[in-house]
Write a structure and sequence with these properties.
This protein is mainly alpha-helical. The chain contains 15 helices and two strands. The chain has a two-stranded antiparallel ribbon. It is elongated, with a radius of gyration of 30 Å.
Length: 410
C-alpha cells in the first residue's frame, strides 16, 4: 500500500512541477506577472482532489461533476487573469481524462518514459525565452522547476523498480528487501541534500545573474569573432581595390568596442569558477554519503551473513504468449469470446487488488488464495469458470459470459 501511494505521489509532484513551469513560461512571456500563491494552492487542490477521487471510485462518471465544479469555482471565484484561470481549467480537464484512463485500466499506472525529454525541452524553451526577451526571473525559475521535475522523475523510477523487485522476489526468503529499501532511502536523501545545497549555493553565489551575464558574454564573444573575421576580409579586399577605408575603420571601431565593453572572458570565467565550487561541495557530500552507505552495508552483512535461499519457484501452469502482428487478427482476437472472458476476470481481479497488481508468475490459484487470505474476497466460482476457458478448452458463449459477470458480483 505504501509503495502504491509513493508511486502516485511522485507522479503527482512531477506533473505539478511540469505544469507549473509551463504556466510560468506562458504567462511571463506575454508580459503578465508570475503565478501567485493562490494559484499554486488551487493547483495543488486540483491534483490532490483528482488523485483521491479516482482511487476512491470504480466508475469514471464521478470525475465529471467534480471537474465541472472545479472549473465553475475557478472561473467565478478566482481573482486572477483570464489566461491563468483558463490554464487552471485546462489542467482540471486534462486530469479528468487521466483519471478516466486510470480507472478503466483497473488502477494500473502508466510506465514512465525512458528519458523525461518534455521537461528538458520546456526548461530549455523557458531559458531561451528568458535570455532573449530578458524576462525577469524566468531563467532561475526554469532551472529550479526543471531540477525538481527531474528529481521526482528519478523517484518515480525508484518506486516502480522497487515494486517490480518486490513482486519478483515474493517466493525467495533471505533477500534483504528491508535493507535494500533502507539503503535506497538514504540514497534518495543524499540526492535531495545535494539538490538543496546546490540551489542554496546558487542563490548565495548569485548564479542565476551570473548565467545571464554568461549568455551575454557568449553573444559578445561571437560578435567579437564576427567583426574580427570581417575586418580581416576587408583588409584583404582593400589590397586589391581602391575603395575608401571608412568601412574598415567602422568595423575596427565596432571590434574595439566589443572587446572593451563586452568583458566576455571575465564573465565566462566567473560562471566557470562558481560552478566548479558548487560541484566541489556536491562531490564532498557524495563522498561522505558513499562512505556512510558502505559502513551501513558492512554492518548489515556482519549481522546477517547475507544468506539467501529459494523456498518455492515452481508453478503449476505455464503461460505462453504468441505475438500476432496482423492488425485484423488482433482485432478478431480482441472481440473473441475467450478474450471477453479474460477481460471479465482481469477487471474483477484488478478491482480487488488495486494496491498490488498480480505478476505474470502468479497463477489463478495464487491470486485466489491471496484475495481470500488478505482481502477476505471469495472468487472461487469466477476462477473456476475462467480456468475452464483458459486451460480446459471450454469455448464460452453469451450465457457463459453472463455467468462470469454474475460470479463477479457475488
Amino acid at each position: 500500500m505504501m509503495n502504491s501511494f509513493a508511486r502516485q505521489f511522485f507522479r503527482l509532484c512531477y506533473g505539478y512541477a511540469f505544469y507549473l513551469l509551463f504556466m510560468e513560461l506562458f504567462v511571463r512571456t506575454i508580459g503578465e506577472p508570475g503565478i501567485s500563491w493562490v494559484v499554486l494552492l488551487v493547483m495543488a487542490g486540483i491534483y490532490a482532489g483528482n488523485y483521491l477521487l479516482r482511487n476512491a471510485v470504480q466508475r469514471i462518471w464521478p470525475l465529471i461533476p467534480f471537474t465541472v465544479l472545479v472549473c465553475v469555482g475557478i472561473w467565478f471565484l478566482l481573482p486572477e487573469s483570464t489566461l491563468q484561470r483558463s490554464l487552471l481549467m485546462g489542467l482540471a480537464i486534462g486530469l479528468m481524462f487521466s483519471g478516466f484512463r486510470f480507472i478503466r485500466s483497473g488502477g494500473l499506472l502508466p510506465p514512465p518514459m525512458d528519458i523525461p525529454w518534455p521537461v528538458f525541452l520546456l526548461g530549455l524553451m523557458a531559458t531561451v525565452f528568458g535570455l532573449v526577451y530578458k524576462v525577469e526571473g524566468l531563467v532561475p525559475l526554469a532551472a529550479v522547476l526543471t531540477g525538481v521535475a527531474l528529481l521526482f522523475f528519478l523517484l518515480i523510477l525508484y518506486a516502480d523498480n522497487t515494486r517490480n523487485y518486490m513482486d519478483s522476489t515474493r517466493d525467495i526468503k533471505g533477500v534483504p528487501i528491508r535493507q535494500m529499501l533502507k539503503m535506497n532511502s538514504w540514497i534518495i536523501v543524499g540526492i535531495f541534500l545535494c539538490m538543496v545545497v546546490a540551489i542554496l549555493l546558487g542563490e548565495v553565489l548569485h548564479l542565476p545573474d551570473a548565467f545571464v551575464r554568461f549568455g551575454e558574454a557568449l553573444v559578445s564573444l561571437l560578435k567579437t569573432v564576427f567583426f574580427g573575421t570581417l575586418l580581416v576580409f576587408q583588409w584583404i579586399g582593400q589590397l586589391f581595390s581602391s575603395s575608401s577605408s571608412q568601412t574598415v575603420h567602422n568595423t575596427a571601431r565596432r571590434l574595439r568596442q566589443e572587446v572593451e565593453e563586452g568583458n566576455a572572458f571575465a564573465n565566462i570565467l566567473e560562471v566557470v569558477l562558481k560552478l566548479l565550487f558548487v560541484a566541489l561541495v556536491v562531490f564532498v557530500i557524495i563522498r561522505i554519503l558513499s562512505r556512510f552507505l558502505k559502513s551501513l552495508s558492512k554492518k548489515y552483512h556482519r549481522s546477517h551473513g547475507g544468506a539467501e535461499h529459494v523456498t518455492e519457484t515452481a508453478k503449476t501452469d505455464v503461460r505462453t504468449r504468441i505475438g500476432v502482428r496482423n492488425p485484423f487478427q488482433r482485432m478478431k482476437n480482441y472481440l473473441s469470446m475467450e478474450e471477453r472472458a479474460r477481460r471479465i476476470y482481469r477487471k474483477r481481479i484488478l478491482e480487488c487488488r488495486k494496491d498490488r497488481v498480480p505478476t505474470e508468475r502468479e497463477t489463478t490459484k495464487d491470486i485466489l488464495e491471496t484475495l481470500r487470505d488478505e482481502e477476505g474476497i471469495e472468487l472461487s466460482e469466477l476462477t473456476e469458470l475462467y480456468n475452464a476457458v483458459r486451460y480446459g478448452g471450454v469455448i464460452p458463449d453469451r450465457a457463459y459470459l453472463s455467468r462470469m459477470r454474475k460470479a463477479c458480483r457475488s
